[in-house]
Each structure stands twice: as C-alpha cells, then as structure tokens.
Amino acid sequence: MEHESIISLVVVILAAFLTPILMNRLKLRALPVVVAEIIVGLIIGQSGFDLVNQSTWLETLSTLGFIFLMFLSGLEIDFSIFAGKNKRKNEKQPSQSPFIISLVIFLGILILSVGLSYAFVLAGFIDNVFLMTLIISTISLGVVVPTLKEAQMMKSTFGQTILMIAVIADLVTMILLAVFATIYGDEGGNMWLLLILFAVGVILYFVGKIFQKRSFIETMSKGTVQIGTRAVFTLIIVLVAVSESVGAENILGAFLAGTLVSLLSPNQELVHQLDSFGYGFLIPIFFVMVGVEMNLRTLLTDPQILILIPLLLIALLISKIVPVLYLRRWYDWRSVISAGTILTSTLSLVIAAAAIGERIGVIDAQMEGALILVAVISCIITPWFFKRFYVRYAETDKKNDVAFIGANQLTMPSVRNLDERYYRTHLYHTKLDKLDESLVQSEFDIQELDNYEPAQLEALGVFNVDILVVSTGDEEQNSQISLYAKELGVDRVIARIEQPALSNELKENDIEVFSVLLSTNALLKALIEAPSVMNILTNQDNALYQVSMQNPAFDGVSLRQFPFHGDLIIVRIFRGKDSIVPHGDTVLRMDDRLIVTGSGEYVDDLHELLE
C-alpha cells in the first residue's frame, strides 16, 4: 500500500514537472499553466490512463497546495490600486474613480448572477441559489493578473479598472463562500464566529506592523534563519487553525493570511520566494490532482451535464459582459467586450465552491466535476480571446509620450535624436520668445503658447504624457512647472536647473534635474580621464541603451539561462531604486531596466523580445 502511494506521488510530481516543459516546446503560451496541469491530470487520471491511486501523501500535499493557492490569491491583491494613482497619461480618463466604477460593475455582476442562478434552479439543474450565485459571480484573479501583465495594461486606468473588478469579486466571493459553508455545513448557525477569525487577523496585522521595521528582524531575515518566511508560514497555519476552529473553511484563513501579508507590503524577494515554493511544488500537485479525480467519461455520458456545460458558460459570459457595458461611457466597444471576456475566466474559487458544496451534500460528485470542467474551459477560451480580440493600448499607443517645454538648442536636437519607434515628442514654446530660425525645421511640430502658466499647460493637456522635460530660460519657472506636474502624477519629470539649492529641493520631490554647466564639466572630465567610456557614450554604433523588461515569460529567468545571443553586454540592471551589477546568476524581474551596450540591430531584437 505504501509502495503504491509513493509510485502515485512520483507520477504526479513528474506530470507537474514535465507540463511547463511540454508547453514551452509546443509554444502553448495562451494556455494558463494551471489549466495545462488539470488537462495533464485528466490524461493520467480516471479520465485517461488511470495511473494514479488515492493516497494519504497525495491528499495531504493536494490540500496544502489548495491552502497555499488561496494564500497566494490573497497575496496577489495589491491594495494600492484602490488609491487609483497609476494612470497611463495618453489614455482617456473616466470622470469617475476606478474604484467606484469597479464597485458598480461588480454589484451588477452579483445581481445578475442571482437572477441567472434562479433560472438554473427553476430549470432543475441545481437546488441551491446561493452556491450557483457564487459560481457565476466569481472571477479568477490568477488568470486576470498574468493576462493584464502580458498585455502591458497593469498601469493603465483601463487595466486597473479590470483588475479592481477582479479583486473586489475575489474578496467578496471568498467571504460569501465562508458564509455559505457556515450556513449549509454540519455546524450551521455559527456565522457570527467568523468575526473571531477577522478579529484575530486584525490583531496579527498590527503585531506584524510593529515588528516589521525592527532592525533585528531584518538581520534575522538572512542566512539560515529566514525569519520572514517562518513568520508567513506561522501566520498561514494559525489563521487556518482559527478558521477551522470557528467552523469556517480552512481556505478562508489562508486567503486572509495572504491579504494581511499583502497589506504589510512585504519585501519583493520574500514574495518571489513564496511564489517559487507555491507554484514550483505544492500548487501544481493540487491542480494535477483536480484533473486526476475528474471522470470525464461519466460526465460526458450524462445528458443533463452536457446541456448544463454550454448553458453555464453562456451564463458566465452574460453575467460579466452586461455589467461591463457601463465602461462604454469611456471606452470603445472592442475594449469593453474584451474586458467582459477576460472577467469571465474563473477557476480557483469555483473549484473551492464545488468541493465544499459536494462535501456538505449540496451537490453531488457529477455536478462538482461539471462545475470544475466549465471553469477549466473558461480559462482556456477567455485569455486566448482577449489576446486575439483586444487591440491593446501598447500596440496602438506603444510609444512613450515626451513633452518638451521650451524649444531651444538643448531640447530640439534631443527631439530629433529620440528614436521615433519608441517615443512620440511634443514641443511647446511661447509666442513671446523668438526661436533661432536655423533651429526651426519642418520636422519640428512646435505648439505656441501664450505663457508657461501651469494651469494653462494643464488645460492644454501638456501634462498627459509619460515624460516631461522642462527647459525654459527661467529656472524658477522650470521649478514651478516641474512641481506642478509631479503633483498631477506625471511619471517622470526632468528639469533644467543650475542652482544647487533649487536642484536639491526638486530631487527631494522625485524630479530629475540636469545642469548644462555641470554636464559640460562632467563630460570634459570624463573625456580626459576615461576616453574609452566617452567613446561608448558618444558612438552611435555602440552606445548605451535602456531596455525595459515587460515580458512575463522571462520573469525569474537568470542571465545564464536567458535565451538571447548577440553582440550585446548588459552593463547594469536598475530595479526600483536599486542598481544591480549583473552576473550569470542574476535573475530578471518584471519592470527591470536593463542598461545594455552593443550594435543597434541586436538592441532592437532585445527591445522586441523583452518589451
């Protein structure tokens, strides 16, 4: 018996290991890896070759995988999006805040889900309206997040709105699932005990807040101690135990643990470690076992199930598309339909709801399998459709918008030299200032202004850009415009300032400063002391370039394994405010900025690969 147990475990582990390799070789990038793992489980399980037997090993690891999946689902929620600060400057902005829009849309989804659930009950497919409402209204954050990242939409208002709808749905449906299990479970009626769980969560949050910044904690987070990782696992186990003690589902405790860790804004390195452990070991076992335990042969021979599957898929689509039409007030039809489609994807919470429903006797094993199958199908169809149908802003508006305030001998050559494939430039100049006629060429589109008053610039949309360069002849004016732009949320502001005191003040406000005098002195000094370095900076054939890492396929890949070969050297990697000297074991992360040197041809290839 123990021998069979180990063999089944080995088969499942091998299946989990080989699945992403096969996906990579077959170039199945549109298919979420978790869905592929379920499909592989179907092949090796009851629906296919029946190579896996039930065992304590697999049951325990699968349960732990599910708990850890719910934890990472909570951790995936970025509560900073509720502040609504991240906006793409060249995108049309809704008149309402993304949070209000998202809340209205989710309420629409919930109300419509209740109505559709009653329809399924009246048709005789299911007896419980509450459970079916959960099934229809839930949205898979685990599918929405990577899809938006791949489409480079995470920082756009449109992308943030889609993400926020998914986040609200994730939070609300998880809480409703706990309420459902409490009401219909064996120990129904103790719903108020859930408040104990949330109270414990709040207490642990404040405890974490107190100890988070202590110096001794930072010291113990390295080496063999890894106190941060120990604290996270302790938090998960404690909240899971409390959750079960008050009669709720263990996954609610795990989800709450994830949201608490997210609220504490953990070190990104710790998040990557947790992701690696979860998605590298426990979670694949859970998803493979979902496929193993599903019996498609029985499902597909039941006429009622065959009718239910397409009807439920249509219900999922209607419940998302109709409320999302609210976005039509600000966005085009293609964007709105695409948003509704990607929000139709549902997986983890449906699996959870179906498993809980079957365990407490609300539905049978056949219905559980049908609900999971519908969730899997939705995760196969919706990301593919979203990528095919949606003309993302990164395609039609791929270039960075750069505004130059002040047309002069500094800014105009920069406009000419910026690569048109990556930058769209705008020049602004006052009518009172006379331009050197030798500088004004047909290639420059200069918009004349009455003055440089910040309010007028805002009214003209000058600040709706990704990068703002302020280089008028008045330093005080440059400072005033730069501070105003930063308050409006312009991502990067670059100002021409010669006075050291004024320069320091702007730097404190996250404004980049350049000085003609200091730049000239620095270049002359570098030319004398390091002429080879100056040759790299000034040689157009072998200059320094910045490439942004936006391809999730290479997130976590070390430079040693990076599949790019060419006449290029990665000189430096900037990650947030950190500057990293790269070596073979350096791992690439999303939003890294790579400083590279090499021939333009290979730099273009790298741009295409990573951006």
From TrEMBL:
<dbReference type="Pfam" id="PF02254">
    <property type="entry name" value="TrkA_N"/>
</dbReference>
<feature type="transmembrane region" description="Helical">
    <location>
        <begin position="99"/>
        <end position="123"/>
    </location>
</feature>
<dbReference type="GO" id="GO:0006813">
    <property type="term" value="P:potassium ion transport"/>
</dbReference>
<feature type="transmembrane region" description="Helical">
    <location>
        <begin position="129"/>
        <end position="149"/>
    </location>
</feature>
<feature type="transmembrane region" description="Helical">
    <location>
        <begin position="305"/>
        <end position="327"/>
    </location>
</feature>
<feature type="transmembrane region" description="Helical">
    <location>
        <begin position="369"/>
        <end position="386"/>
    </location>
</feature>
<feature type="domain" description="RCK C-terminal">
    <location>
        <begin position="530"/>
        <end position="611"/>
    </location>
</feature>
<feature type="transmembrane region" description="Helical">
    <location>
        <begin position="277"/>
        <end position="296"/>
    </location>
</feature>
<dbReference type="InterPro" id="IPR038770">
    <property type="entry name" value="Na+/solute_symporter_sf"/>
</dbReference>
<feature type="transmembrane region" description="Helical">
    <location>
        <begin position="61"/>
        <end position="79"/>
    </location>
</feature>
<keyword id="KW-1133">Transmembrane helix</keyword>
<dbReference type="InterPro" id="IPR006037">
    <property type="entry name" value="RCK_C"/>
</dbReference>
<dbReference type="InterPro" id="IPR036291">
    <property type="entry name" value="NAD(P)-bd_dom_sf"/>
</dbReference>
<dbReference type="GO" id="GO:0015297">
    <property type="term" value="F:antiporter activity"/>
</dbReference>
<keyword id="KW-0050">Antiport</keyword>
<keyword id="KW-0406">Ion transport</keyword>
<protein>
    <submittedName>
        <fullName>Sodium:proton antiporter</fullName>
    </submittedName>
</protein>
<dbReference type="InterPro" id="IPR006153">
    <property type="entry name" value="Cation/H_exchanger_TM"/>
</dbReference>
<dbReference type="GO" id="GO:0016020">
    <property type="term" value="C:membrane"/>
</dbReference>
<dbReference type="GO" id="GO:1902600">
    <property type="term" value="P:proton transmembrane transport"/>
</dbReference>
<keyword id="KW-0812">Transmembrane</keyword>
<feature type="transmembrane region" description="Helical">
    <location>
        <begin position="161"/>
        <end position="185"/>
    </location>
</feature>
<comment type="similarity">
    <text>Belongs to the monovalent cation:proton antiporter 2 (CPA2) transporter (TC 2.A.37) family.</text>
</comment>
<dbReference type="InterPro" id="IPR036721">
    <property type="entry name" value="RCK_C_sf"/>
</dbReference>
<dbReference type="InterPro" id="IPR003148">
    <property type="entry name" value="RCK_N"/>
</dbReference>
<dbReference type="GO" id="GO:0008324">
    <property type="term" value="F:monoatomic cation transmembrane transporter activity"/>
</dbReference>
<keyword id="KW-0813">Transport</keyword>
<feature type="transmembrane region" description="Helical">
    <location>
        <begin position="6"/>
        <end position="23"/>
    </location>
</feature>
<keyword id="KW-0472">Membrane</keyword>
<feature type="transmembrane region" description="Helical">
    <location>
        <begin position="191"/>
        <end position="211"/>
    </location>
</feature>
<feature type="transmembrane region" description="Helical">
    <location>
        <begin position="333"/>
        <end position="357"/>
    </location>
</feature>
<feature type="transmembrane region" description="Helical">
    <location>
        <begin position="30"/>
        <end position="49"/>
    </location>
</feature>
<dbReference type="Pfam" id="PF00999">
    <property type="entry name" value="Na_H_Exchanger"/>
</dbReference>
<feature type="transmembrane region" description="Helical">
    <location>
        <begin position="232"/>
        <end position="257"/>
    </location>
</feature>
<dbReference type="Pfam" id="PF02080">
    <property type="entry name" value="TrkA_C"/>
</dbReference>
